[in-house]
Amino acid sequence: MDTASKLQVLLNDPHLSPELKNIAQKVYNNKRITFDEGVLLYEKGELAYLGTLANYIREKRHGNHTYFNRNFHIEPTNLCVYDCKFCSYSRLIKERSEGWEYTMDEMFDIIKKYDGEPVTEVHIVGGVLPQYDVAFYSELFTRIKKHRPGLHVKALTPVEYHYIFKKAKIDYATGMKLMKEAGLESIPGGGAEIFHPEIREQIAKDKCTGDQWLAIHEEWHKLGMRSNATMLYGHIEQYKHRVDHMEQLRQLQDRTGGFQTFIPLKFRNQDNQMSHVPETTVVEDLRNYAIARIYLDNFDHIKAYWAMISRTTAQLSLNFGVDDIDGTLDDTTKIYSMAGAEEQHPAMSTKQLVELIKQVGRYPIERDTLYNVITDYNDFEFPDEVKPQFYKLPVIN
Ligand code: V47
Ligand code: SF4
User: Fold this and answer.
1) If you measure from the C-alpha of residue 79 to the centroid of ligand 1, how many angstroms do you get, rounded to a whole number?
2) 290-to-58, 62, 153, 248, 304 alpha-carbon distances in Å
């Protein structure tokens, strides 16, 4: 049965409450749901119901296509002037012996390690320290682009930008323009956490506020540039805070259209100041992806970051609204392994990523950062392939 017929079954289900039926009807008619309806989905939407709605939207937008890219990360330092309660990664400056602080040349050596490799993106993000300032990052971006013009520089979050622009005494508009001129091409989604001050004050005090995070993305979008957005969920926030977070993103997206992807980030509780807070279940993770897909009707893509949620949950998520599972990574990020994620050395070859996607009947598409198609792997055969049994989903036109 195709996804539209499944949605019709729901619409005719005499046991479904009128409120949930009304939301299903809105999804079918391509109508936006309200804040209260978002909260209702979290409170009352069962997994199968949410999956039917989210998968309908996902397949209408993307069919079976599932995106990934070939990327690597550079994490300049794990020392940080801030002290976010959920962060397992940051070692405060007083614990300097456990930290690293790459120099410009050390970072550039990482870039050069990938010379000749078919990666398309470098994702740069880490802790905040005074020596990494406007001049430092401008020089780094310029050097990368000069060395390898085709490598997309996706770097830093409003947490770093707010800090370095304040130090340089320049406003956001001037700062983002400078970064663009230096070679920055997009902004990753980090630092968003939960925008609502009731929660942000408790988990991420002192760093940029939700409004400042949004303002920096807005300035970047005004320059005609693209960015991502995340939400750190499953800790002390309530459902209304998650919906508020998505509402603010939806409103900004209505104004600018500059966001490409929304990435829900599941809170992992190992080795941080919130270790007493239990982690969410896989069912809650899938419900959350599905609600994000339904709520954010003006976002093209919903990404499940496989390094954080495990490969099997990433596969499952592809039936709950997700159409992107991020990249090959090459064991270059420590943010999640240090927080207790299953993947202690996150890296997948292109072949492994392609198989992961094909195993659940989806079509693997290698994309660049801006979602231009690089290779359609659906009918592609790797030279030494021993074919596993793949499940075939029906083709949606
Ligand atoms: O901002 C930190 C999160 C983010 C924990 O844009 C944690 O393509 C869970 O934003 N449990 C950084 N999450 C990573 C990020 C990202 C990742 C992948 C792709 C993209 C993209 C962006 O990691 C931080 C914070 O929200 N984080 N600690 C933790 N214990
Ligand atoms: Fe620093 Fe980022 Fe960790 Fe917060 S989440 S302490 S800003 S590295």
Assistant:
1) 16
2) 9, 15, 30, 18, 11
Q: DSSP H helical segments within the chain, as ranges? A: 3-11, 18-28, 35-44, 47-62, 104-113, 134-147, 158-168, 172-182, 197-203, 210-222, 239-256, 282-295, 306-309, 311-317, 350-359
199 ligand 2 Cβ < 6 A: no
Interval 267-282: pLDDT, tens: 999 989 999 999 999 9
CATH class belonging to 65-376: alpha beta
Q: Choose the residue to mutate in 335, 337, 367, 370 for probing ligand 1, maximizing ligand atoms within 8 Å of C-beta.
A: 335
Give CA torsion, residues 315, 308, 213, 62, to 10 deg: -10
Which of 36-40, 75-79, 255-259 is the least confident region?
75-79
pTM of the full predicted structure?
A: 0.94
Report which bound ligand comes closest to the CA of 125: 1
The answer to whether residue 254 scores a pLDDT higher than 60 is: yes
Taking CA atoms only, the protein residue closest to ligand 1 atom 4 is 190
Domain coordinates in residue numbering, the chain: 3-62, 65-376
Ligand 2 lined by 192 (C-beta under 6 Å): no
